[in-house]
Design brief:
The complex is a heterodimer.
Chain A (H helix, E strand, L loop, with lengths): L4 H10 L2 E5 L2 E5 L2 H13 L3 E10 H4 L1 E10 L2 E9 L5 E2 L9 H11 L3 E2 L47 E10 L6 E8 L3 E7 L7 H5 L4 H9 L6 H15 L6 H29 L3 H22 L8 E2 L2 E2 L5 H26 L2 H7 L7 H7 L3 H6 L6 H4 L20 H25 L17 E8 L2 E9 L4 E7 L1 H12 L8 H8 L3 H5 L1
Helix pairs in contact in A: 6-7, 7-8, 8-9, 8-15, 8-17, 9-10, 10-15
Chain B lengths: L1 H9 L23 E3 L9 H5 L5 E3 L3 E5 L8 H5 L4 E3 L14 E5 L2
Antiparallel strand pairs in B: 1-4, 2-3, 3-5
Classes of the chains: A alpha+beta, B alpha+beta.
The structure holds iron/sulfur cluster (SF4) (2 copies).
One iron/sulfur cluster binds next to helix 2 of chain B.
C-alpha cells in the first residue's frame, strides 16, 4: 500500500527526519510539533496503535516518545524527545485513544502529561512511592520498594437515589483481579469505573534483563491464553531486529497454532456467553469442544496452551503428514459439532432476548477509543491485522473478516461464531498447502540500530510488540495487549444496562487483566 | 426432537477416567518433568545457561533440578538433546519443598 502524497507532504513539512523502513514510515519531529503531527494523521483516519516512551538519556540525553499510527494499511512511527521535569503536551484532548497510554507513561517514566483530563495513576499499586519510576534505566529493581499509603480517588456520581456498588476491594474469582465500581440509580448503571493494575508484574522491565531466547518464554506467560500470539509477536520482532527470516514451513505452522489458539479462546468465550445467559446446555457443549481443541493442542505440540512452539527463527515442533491428516479429520468433526452448537444457541428466543441490545458499544466510541479485534468488528470497525498487515502465512490464506453493526452482545457472539468458521477454514488451507523444508533458521548476527515492530492478530485483537535491541537482550520492549485498548470500551458499553447484565457484557468483551497490567 | 436428543445422550461415553486407578494416555509430545542422563553429560553447563528460571544447577552428585521453579518449557532439552529429554512424568507433587529438588547423579 502506498502513502497518500498530500499527507506525506504535510508530514514532511513538520518532520525533522523522514525515513521509509519497509512497511513503516519513521518520522522524527520536535516536541512542539508532535501533538499536531499525530493529530493530523489521526484526523485523516489514522488509528493510534500505541504510544510509549523510552529512556534514552544515556545516548540522546532525553526520553523519547513514540506514537505508532496505522493509516490505511500504512504504519507511521512518530518520535520526539521529552525531557525530565518538563511536562509534555497531552494528546488526549485531540486523540482520546491516548488516554491510558499517557497515564501509563506517567507511572512508568515519571513524565507528566500537561492537559490530560484524568492524570491519576493507572498501573502501579496505590502505595507505590510517587518518585520511583520503574522503566527508567536508573531504576534498581533489586531493592525493596517502600510502601507509602496513598488513596486512589475514584470518580463519584452524586444525586438523589444514586448509589455506588463497589465490586471488590479486589474482585478476584478464578478469573483475574480487578476493581469495578458502579454508580447506579435503581437498576440501570449510570457509570462504571474500572481499576486494574493488580497483576502488574513488571514484564517490560523484566524483559530488558532477559536474553532473547529466554524472552520468548516470558512472552508466552504475559497472558496465559494468548501465549502463541505473544510469542509469535515477540519472535517476529526479534527476527526483524536481527534481519533473519523464519522458513516458510515455520510460518505455516505458526499460522496453524495461532488459529488453534483463536479457536479455543473463541469457543470458550461463546460458551461463556451462553453460560452467563443461564443457557447451560450449549455452554456445556461448547466447553466440551474447547476441551477437545485443548487436547488436540497437547497431542499436536505437547502443550495445551501452545507454549514452547514459537522460537526465534521459526518453530520447535513440526507437523508431519500423519499429524496433519489426523488434525484434519478432527477438524471435520469439530466443525459439525460446532454448527450444532451455534444453531442451538442462535435459535433460542430466550437467549437472543438476553443478548440483543445489551451492552452496546457504538462505532464512534469503538473508533475513538481505538478498540481492536472482535469487539471493534462487532461495532462495525473493519480492522484485522491478518489482512491489514499480514504476517506468517496469512498472505497466502483466503478468509473473510466477519463484521456486525449493532455492537451489542449479540454482535460480539456472532462475530466470534463466524470467526471460528474462518479459523477452521484457515487451518485446513494451511495444512493443505504447507511447504516442505526446515522449520527453523539459525539465530545469529547483530541487531539493527532502528526499532522493530510486530503486529499479530490475537484472539482478542491486534497485539503489538515493539523493540529497540541490544546485542544480548532488548534495550526497550513495549508490549501492547489488545485488552489495553478494549477495557475502556467496556466502561461505555454497560452504561444504561442493568447491573445483572454486567457479567454478560463483561464476558462478551472477554478481556485479559494480566495482558493489560503487564 | 426429544428422542433424538435422548439417543445422542445415551450414545455418549464417559469423558473422564477413574484416575488414579486408570492411567491417562499421555500424548507422545507431552512435556513433563525434564530428565537428564548424566552418563553422557560433559558438564558444559549449556542447559543451566538456557534455563529461563534458573531451575538447574550443578551439585556435587550431579545436576539438580528444582521442580518448584521449573516451568516445563523444554529449553534445556532443546540445547542438550543428547542428555535431557522431557519425560512423560507428571505426578511430581511432594510434601516438602526439599522434595521438589531432583538430582540426576553421575553414572
Ligand atoms: S546435561 Fe547437557 S547441557 Fe547440561 S551440562 Fe550436561 S552436557 Fe551440558
Ligand atoms: S524445562 Fe525449562 S524451566 Fe524446566 S529445567 Fe528445563 S529449561 Fe529450566
Amino acid at each position: 500500500m502506498s502513502f497518500n502524497d498530500g499527507l506525506i507532504r504535510k508530514i514532511s513539512s513538520m518532520a525533522e527526519r523522514l525515513e521509509h523502513r519497509g512497511e513503516l514510515l519513521h518520522v522524527a519531529t520536535s516536541r512542539d510539533q508532535f501533538v499536531d503531527l499525530v493529530d493530523i494523521i489521526h484526523k485523516v483516519g489514522g488509528r493510534l496503535v500505541s504510544l510509549h516512551a523510552t529512556d534514552e538519556r544515556a545516548t540522546a540525553e532525553s526520553f523519547m516518545m513514540y506514537a505508532i499510527l496505522d493509516h490505511d494499511g500504512c504504519l507511521i512511527e512518530v518520535v520526539s524527545p521529552v525531557w525530565d521535569g518538563v511536562p509534555f503536551q497531552s494528546l488526549v484532548p485531540r486523540v482520546h485513544a491516548a488516554n491510558w497510554y499517557e497515564r501509563e507513561i506517567q507511572d512508568m517514566f515519571g513524565l507528566t502529561p500537561h492537559g490530560h483530563p484524568d492524570p491519576r495513576p493507572l498501573v502501579l499499586y496505590d502505595d507505590w512511592p510517587q518518585d520511583t519510576f520503574p522503566l527508567r534505566k536508573d531504576f534498581d529493581s533489586s531493592i525493596d520498594i517502600p510502601r507509602i499509603p496513598r488513596e486512589y480517588k475514584y470518580r463519584h456520581m452524586e444525586g438523589d437515589g444514586v448509589f455506588e456498588i463497589p465490586v471488590g476491594p479486589v474482585h478476584a474469582g478464578v478469573i483475574e483481579p480487578g476493581h469495578f465500581r458502579f454508580s447506579v440509580a435503581g437498576e440501570p448503571i449510570m457509570a462504571l469505573e474500572i481499576r486494574l493494575g493488580y497483576v502488574h508484574r513488571g514484564v517490560e522491565k523484566l524483559s530488558e534483563t532477559m536474553p532473547y531466547h529466554k524472552g520468548v518464554i516470558l512472552a508466552e506467560r504475559i497472558s496465559g491464553d494468548t501465549s502463541a500470539a505473544h510469542s509469535a509477536a515477540y519472535c517476529q520482532s526479534v527476527e526483524q531486529l536481527f534481519e533473519i527470516k523464519a522458513p516458510e514451513r515455520a510460518e505455516y505452522i505458526r499460522t496453524i497454532i495461532l488459529e488453534l489458539e483463536r479457536l479455543y479462546n473463541h469457543l470458550g468465550d461463546i460458551s461463556g456467553i451462553a453460560l452467563d445467559t443461564a443457557f447451560a446446555v450449549p455452554a456445556a457443549d461448547g466447553y466440551v469442544l474447547r476441551e477437545r481443541v485443548l487436547e488436540l493442542n497437547e497431542w499436536l505440540t505437547g502443550s495445551r496452551l501452545l507454549r514452547s512452539i514459537n522460537t526465534i527463527g521459526g518453530v520447535n515442533k513440526d507437523i508431519d503428514r500423519d499429524k496433519s491428516a489426523k488434525l484434519l479429520s478432527h477438524l471435520v468433526d469439530l466443525r459439525l459439532q460446532f454448527e450444532r452448537l451455534s444453531s442451538t444457541m442462535m435459535s433460542s428466543v430466550s437467549m437472543l432476548d438476553r443478548v440483543e441490545g445489551t451492552g452496546i458499544l457504538s462505532k464512534e466510541n469503538a473508533r475513538s477509543l481505538g478498540c481492536v479485534g472482535p469487539i471493534a468488528r462487532a461495532s462495525g470497525v473493519d480492522i484485522d491485522t491478518r489482512r491489514d498487515h499480514p504476517y506468517a502465512a496469512y498472505p497466502d490464506m483466503s478468509f473473510r473478516i466477519p463484521l456486525q453493526k449493532s455492537g451489542d452482545v449479540y454482535a460480539r457472539t456472532v462475530v466470534r461464531i463466524d470467526e471460528v468458521r474462518e479459523s477452521f477454514a484457515i487451518i485446513e488451507q494451511a495444512l493443505d498447502r504447507i511447504p516442505n523444508g526446515s522449520i527453523c533458521t539459525e539465530f545469529t548476527g547483530a541487531p539493527i540500530k532502528t526499532t522493530a515492530l510486530s503486529l499479530v492478530e490475537a484472539s482478542r485483537g491486534e497485539l503489538m510488540h515493539w523493540m529497540i535491541g541490544e546485542e544480548e537482550k532488548p534495550f526497550r520492549h513495549k508490549i501492547r495487549d489488545p485488552s489495553f485498548c478494549n477495557w475502556l470500551g467496556l466502561e461505555l458499553a454497560v452504561r444504561g444496562d442493568i447491573v445483572p447484565d454486567f457479567p454478560l457484557v463483561n464476558k462478551s468483551f472477554s478481556l485479559s487483566y494480566a495482558g493489560n497490567d503487564l | 426432537m426429544i428422542l433424538k436428543l435422548l439417543r445422542r445422550l445415551l450414545g455418549r461415553r464417559s469423558r473422564t477416567i477413574q484416575y488414579p486407578i486408570e492411567q491417562p494416555i499421555i500424548p507422545a509430545e507431552f512435556m513433563g518433568c525434564p530428565e537428564a542422563d548424566m552418563n553422557r553429560c560433559d558438564r558444559c553447563d549449556q542447559c543451566i545457561a538456557s534455563c529461563p528460571v534458573s531451575a538447574l544447577d550443578f551439585v556435587d552428585e550431579g545436576l539438580q533440578l528444582d521442580l518448584s521453579l521449573c516451568v516445563f518449557c523444554g529449553e534445556c532439552a532443546r540445547v542438550c538433546p543428547e542428555c535431557i529429554v522431557m519425560s512423560d512424568k507428571f505426578e511430581l507433587a511432594s510434601k516438602s519443598k526439599e522434595g521438589l529438588k531432583v538430582v540426576f547423579t553421575y553414572g
